[in-house]
Amino acid sequence: MLRMRRGCLGGCANTGQLVTLLLVVSVFAGGCMAPRAAPEQVISPMIPDNNPTLINNRWRIVEATYQGNPVVFEAVGPIHIAFLPVGTLNINADCPPGGAYRMVAENTSQYRLYSGEFAPMLCGEPIDSQFDQVMNILEDTTRFELEGQRLFLLGEDGKITLEVDNPP
Known about the structure:
By secondary structure, the chain is an alpha+beta fold. It has helices spanning about 10, 15-30, 50-55, 125-140, and strands at about 60-65, 70, 80-85, 90, 100-105, 110-120, 140-145, 150-155, 160-165. The longest helix has 17 residues, at about 15-30.
């Protein structure tokens, strides 16, 4: 199937031929390997497709606490969180524009957040540091409780309280 000139591996004048040969061989070899199985996702209400309350609403942070102490974020203004059906949590404010986390469910009420794409914080102080504090608490959360129009994201040291805040 593959033909190679005799002596090419030992001293081809054109190393591009060798690179091409190696790429072709790796493609054929890769086709013989079993594909890696994706980690199995636990069916959970934290996966937005399984909980319409999460994906059909926009959530506004109304309170954040760290180690029992309230975190101030009034300079930032309203901070919103949205859960997308693809397992993504988006966070944004007027400034900074925010970003997204990939969300993986652990069970019916626990999850892990993995950092994704974020816009740089260039809003100035105290906005940047206040938004950063809220982001640190969010990254610490690992479980949730949903009570009517309120959502609580809970972590070892922090808690974020959100309310439904749908645009008109």
